[in-house]
Design a protein that fits this description.
Blueprint lengths: L20 E6 L5 H9 L4 E4 L6 E9 L2 E7 L11 H11 L9 E7 L3 H13 L4 E6 L1 H6 L2 E3 L1 H8 L3 E3 L8 H12 L16 H10 L13 H14 L11 H16 L4 H20 E3 L7 H9 L4 H20 L1 H21 L4 H18 L2 H16 L2 H15 L7 H6 L4 H6 L7 H10 L8 H12 L4 E2 L2 E2 H26 L21 H35 L5 H12 L7 H18 L1 H13 L6 H9 L6 H9 L11 H9 L11 H13 L4 H11 L3 H27 L3
Parallel strand pairs: 1-4, 1-5, 5-6, 6-8
Antiparallel strand pairs: 2-3, 3-4, 7-9, 10-11
The protein binds guanosine-5'-diphosphate and magnesium ion.
């Protein structure tokens, strides 16, 4: 092979302690992670990049007796920093902002999409980084009738190219050999550098920025690389970028040059893209040969149906129906099993510990809290399994394409579709899923409305309220309860879309951008990628939401448990002690136990808090007992059910279908004899639960993703206000109308 061997230039990276670093970079979905897993085996460590919640995956690879760190760099189309992923990509490659510099960059290319993938390659070449290319998805390229002249590609690019098929582990040995060669010490040849010549005006812009680069430019870069950094600054910095730590002088200089360029009618972005693509097109014409297409491909045939405005929509609705069916019907046995297991575990601990605070804490606080986290897993796993399959098969891009028109009407990005869908399981992973959107505005707008989607924690609350307060019969031929449940799901979704329209036109105003998204070819989903995706979402839920829910549940338990003794509860305890322990008194004992629990709760800190907030919620038709439930719902919405169980003295381990809790709610009367719970009050409560920002984990997730308190505060304020006002309207108008 006549390819030049590629070696790390001397003294580029200062000698550091520890291992040398290989960075795997490339466009999204080129197989970086698959290749990473093949190269490193199962020793990957996943963490977050410092100060930002983008996953950082590091593994090890041993070659010729030396162990290297391998970094799975987030996928990017370009090194221009417009999203957190892109900023990380360039920082990780260059070793800026606390990242160790890469000793070798391996760019993973999708062979079926060579032209677009080469754009990133050109940028890395300009930066002069030691580079080799893994030309991945060779199987797909062959299947598509693409022939790539590898020798010519290597010669023209000036870097080694290794063909691979990561999913089948083809080409891995050659890749390892090439990596080892490239990391050998003697520098044999200089990195090839720029492949195009900037216009005189652009060259002047870059020259003017050089003195301001300062910290942005790691020491040891040559002139061509420093000019590439100046180009990066020119293209990344603008009046409202979100870059961290750009020196003020550099920012001013860039804004000044941009103003000058625009005044002269120039567009540097356009100019650079055109020049790079001109070079790539010429290269592609030389190295890329395509068989004439043998009629329509599978993908084209499928797309004729699946993105058809009518048929495609019908298929989409059908799929969504199956997804929801699965979410409710299929997860049920697993949920029951989890509840039974945690119930039994609680009993076991209760039986083997002494009666008292410790035992109560372990059973009701801790085990109950963990159980209330785990119980969401079946629905979350199922939903993300579907999303993973749909994404990996290539269908999700079509769904986003179909939904884009609807989403765009309300100002949401087409890619907001997946987070919104995830919101039906849990808002926390859904908020993480907004990272696929490039613009800050699109991400933040989606985060602000995702919590309105009907998450799985609302379901038990809806089931309790609807089951207890609405008749079983039919109205106008429709089953009241079932229709109401579907209605609540629609209500949440429609409210989210309206909220997006309003917020997108006020707080987060911004130009609409059309969805520019290529439709990838359909692929058979790879079980390993899907399993990895489900695993990472579940982990997110457990670490991000789970810990908050657990901590809140424990705090809540304390609020509702202490203080133990009041005059009221002591009187009841005395009454119980006076009652003989005879079998015929069992029922009376049980009734008294429930009374005691109720009395303790009423006098607990939580009970007092419920009283304290009563004036604020009375206009919505709620009394202090509901108030206690609402406070409980802050840990996680479904805690409302068990808190009400305690409030009404029917025990904490009731579920939403408990006949005793329903009966107690029915029997509950105001002082003047009117029932507390009426369908109208149920309506008001449903509306409140649909809209209120009652979830601490969601607020915490928004805080972490936006890195500011402002956004969670805004989310909380607008959702609570909306919930209060709409429940107020329902209750006040309803009572006036005589319901
Ligand atoms: P990343 O986004 O670059 O990390 O890409 P992933 O490793 O997650 O892979 C994206 C998708 O491409 C997955 O469904 C992989 O199974 C698939 N994939 C990866 N490498 C190959 C390959 O060589 N051939 C084919 N046909 N598919 C691949
Ligand atoms: Mg990846």
């Amino acid at each position: 092979m006549d390819a030049p061997a590629c070696h790390a230039p001397p003294s580029k990276s200062p000698p550091r302690e520890g291992r040398r670093l290989i960075a795997l970079a490339g466009n999204p979905n080129t197989g970086k992670t698959t290749l990473f897993n093949r190269l490193t085996g199962s020793n990957a460590r996943v963490g977050n990049y410092p100060g930002i919640t983008v996953e950082r995956t590091l593994g090890q690879l041993t070659l010729k007796g030396e162990t290297f760190d391998v970094l799975d760099v987030p996928g990017t189309y370009s090194l221009v920093s417009r999203s957190p992923e892109e900023q990380i990509a360039i920082d990780a490659l260059l070793g800026r902002h606390g990242h160790p510099p890469a000793d070798l960059v391996v760019i993973v290319l999708d062979a079926t999409n060579l032209e677009r993938n080469l754009y990133l390659v050109l940028q890395v070449l300009e930066l002069g980084l030691p580079l080799i290319l893994a030309l991945n998805m060779m199987d797909a390229a062959e299947a598509a009738g693409l022939h790539i002249d590898l020798g010519a590609l290597e010669r023209r690019l000036g870097v080694p190219v290794v063909p691979t098929t990561a999913t089948r582990a083809h080409g891995l040995d050659a890749l390892r050999t090439q990596i080892a060669d490239a990391l050998d010490d003697d520098p044999l040849y200089p990195p090839p550098g720029w492949r195009w010549t900037p216009s005189p005006a652009l060259a002047a812009d870059l020259e003017a920025l050089l003195p301001h680069l300062g910290d942005e430019s790691p020491s040891g870069l040559d002139t061509s690389a420093t000019r590439a950094l100046a180009l990066w600054a020119l293209m990344s910095i603008d009046a409202d970028d979100e870059l961290d730590g750009v020196p003020a002088g550099l920012r001013l200089a860039v804004l000044d040059r941009l103003k000058g360029a625009r005044a002269a009618g120039r567009d540097p972005d356009q100019e650079v893209a055109t020049a790079r693509y001109a070079w790539i097109d010429k290269l592609a014409a030389e190295v890329l040969h395509r068989d004439p297409p043998p009629g329509r491909t599978w993908t084209e045939r499928l797309d004729a149906v699946l993105i058809h405005p009518v048929a495609g929509f019908a298929v989409f609705l059908g799929l969504m129906f199956v997804v929801f069916q699965a979410l409710f019907a299929w997860s049920d046995p697993a949920i029951t099993a989890i509840e039974t297991t945690f119930g039994a575990l609680g009993e076991l601990v209760r039986a083997s510990t002494e009666v008292g605070v410790v035992s109560d804490f372990l059973v009701d606080g801790l085990i109950g809290g963990v159980g209330s986290v785990i119980v969401f897993l079946p629905q979350i796993v199922l939903l993300f399994l579907f999303i993973g399959l749909l994404e990996d098969s290539g269908y999700m891009a079509r769904a986003a394409f179909l939904m884009d028109r609807v989403m765009n009407k309300v100002g949401l990005h087409g890619r907001a579709f997946v987070p919104m869908l995830s919101g039906f399981a849990c808002a926390v992973p859904a908020i993480m899923a907004t990272r696929t959107m490039e613009r800050r505005r699109d991400r933040f707008l989606t985060m602000m409305v995702v919590p309105l989607m009907t998450c799985s924690a609302r379901l038990p609350v809806y089931t309790l309220i609807i089951g207890a307060l609405f008749p079983v019969g039919t109205v106008l031929g429709l089953p009241v309860q079932g229709t109401l449940m579907i209605g609540m799901y629609l209500f949440g979704t429609v409210t989210a879309l309206i909220a997006a329209a309003v917020i997108g036109r006020t707080v987060l105003r911004g130009p609409r951008v059309p969805l520019l998204m290529e439709l990838p070819p359909y692929r058979r989903p790879d079980p390993r990628s899907v399993a990895r995706m489900v695993g990472s979402r579940v982990k997110l839920f457990l670490t991000e939401a789970g810990t908050v829910i657990l901590v809140c549940s424990v705090i809540l338990w304390g609020l509702l448990y202490f203080p133990r003794d009041s005059a009221e509860s002591q009187a009841l305890v005395a009454q119980k002690a006076a009652l003989a322990e005879a079998p015929e008194n069992d029922d009376a004992h049980a009734a008294l136990d429930a009374e005691i629990a109720g009395a303790r709760l009423r006098n607990s800190y939580g009970g007092r808090l419920g009283h304290a907030i009563e004036p604020a919620i009375a206009p919505l038709g709620f009394d202090w007992k509901i108030g206690v439930g609402l406070i409980g719902a802050f840990a996680a919405r479904e805690v409302f059910v068990s808190t009400l169980g305690v409030v009404y003295g029917v025990g904490a381990d009731v579920d939403e279908e408990s006949p005793t809790l329903r009966a107690r709610m029915h029997a509950e009367r105001h002082a003047d004899g009117r029932p507390v719970y009426s369908p109208l009050m149920g309506m008001s409560l449903l509306v409140f639960f649909a809209l209120a920002a009652q979830c601490m984990s969601t607020l915490a997730a928004v805080k972490r993703e936006t890195r500011s308190w402002r956004w969670p505060a805004f989310l909380f304020a607008y959702m609570s206000a909306l919930a209060w006002v709409l429940s107020f309207v329902v209750w006040q108008v309803g009572t006036r109308l005589g319901f």
